[in-house]
Amino acid sequence: MIDFAGRNASLEIFGVNLVGVTTENVRKVAMTAAVLIVVPLIGWAISKLISLTGRVTSRRAAFWTKQGTSLVVAIVIILMLISIWFDNPNRLATVLGLITAGIAIAMQRVITAIAGYFLILRGKVFNAGDRIVIGGVRGDVIDLSFLQTTVMEMGEAKGEQADSPSVWVRSRQYTGRIATVSNAVIFDQPVYNYTREFPFIFEEMVLPIAYDSDWGKAEEIILAAARQHALDRSQMEEEAIDELKRRYFLGEENPGPRVYWRLTDNWIEMSLRFVVPDHGVRGIKDAMSREIVSNLKAAGIGIASGTYQVVGMPKLQVALSANRQYLDLKPSHADSGKSAPPA
């Protein structure tokens, strides 16, 4: 009833010949299944073996090891499948042309995402652990696949809270959400990298100081706090600074810390510019803020704020009732412009 006895040794069931189901194709299907199972397992075993040997000691090395293994596995699978199914070179070009045209039409976004993956690797757009903004998501890269980038989301500054999607953490700290972004977005939107060649960030704090305060003393206190907690040039990697200048033709940038003054109608605005590492910024700014406030208070210098003064109000006439249980406050005759009722 069931036998490979049809035309070209195809499968025949109850006398019905199943076209294409031949012993040769069954063997090819079996070999394809074996390739799809065995090759990824070998790649996984190689990755585990490399990690167990201890040769991969950094997060970035582990990232590139994983990407390299994935690429090798994918190339081997593609080559083996082509060898299995297209043993006739004359048919290969025609079939590949039809398949490529169909894939290009039906899977445009997928192809774009894969192209974005290779662009990320080739252009070194970011690595694992880098702090980036991609597709409107800000956070640290924790994984990269052929189609998607996985990001551990972090909060945003106060001025960015209205942006979509809403983020309730008001500083650059993790929100607990993991976001996946298609690699295709790098062709449409900019990617901001906090840590690519220069693993430091220029930060600023703005403090309003009253005009009647000791401005010089206030600046000394602010700079002392910055020197205590922020980074100076001696603590930064000279190689990173030189490479940044060489690759991007940057001029001399004083890493600080430095205080800039700006005169306003109400106070002197002192802007403190300083350099911090790409991670742990909130803790550094918290320690600086506490020290600055404490030392300013000890020096008798207050931080200015907007105040309002009431320059005048109408005179009030107080009328006591007979039982003296309440006060009836009414504007005086001179201020109201009307005749005052008898007391």
Note down, in words, how this protein is organized.
With 343 residues, this protein is of the alpha+beta class. The protein folds into four domains: 2-106, no CATH class; 131-193, no CATH class; 200-298, Alpha-Beta Plaits (2-Layer Sandwich); 314-343, no CATH class. Helix content is 41%, strand content 23%. It has helices at residues 23-53, 59-85, 89-106, 108-123, 215-229, 238-248, 281-298, 333-336; strands spanning 2-3, 10-13, 16-22, 131-134, 137-144, 148-154, 174-182, 192-193, 200-209, 258-263, 268-277, 316-320, 327-331. The strands form four sheets. The protein has a five-stranded antiparallel sheet, with no helix packed on it. Strand 1 (2-3) and strand 2 form a beta hairpin. The chain is elongated.
H/I helix tally: 8
Strand order of the largest sheet: 7-6-5-4-8
In percent, how helical is the residue content? 40-55%
Mean pLDDT across the residues is 77
- Radius of gyration based on Cα positions: 36 Å
- Oligomer classification: single chain
Write down the secondary-structure element order.
EEEHHHHEEEEEEHHEEHEEH
Judging from the principal axes of the Cα atoms, what is the shape?
elongated
Biggest β-sheet strands, sense, barrel: 5 strands, antiparallel
Domain module tally: 4
Counting helices, strands and paired strands, the structural category is alpha+beta
Low-pLDDT runs of 5+ residues are: 334-343
Strand content: 15-25%
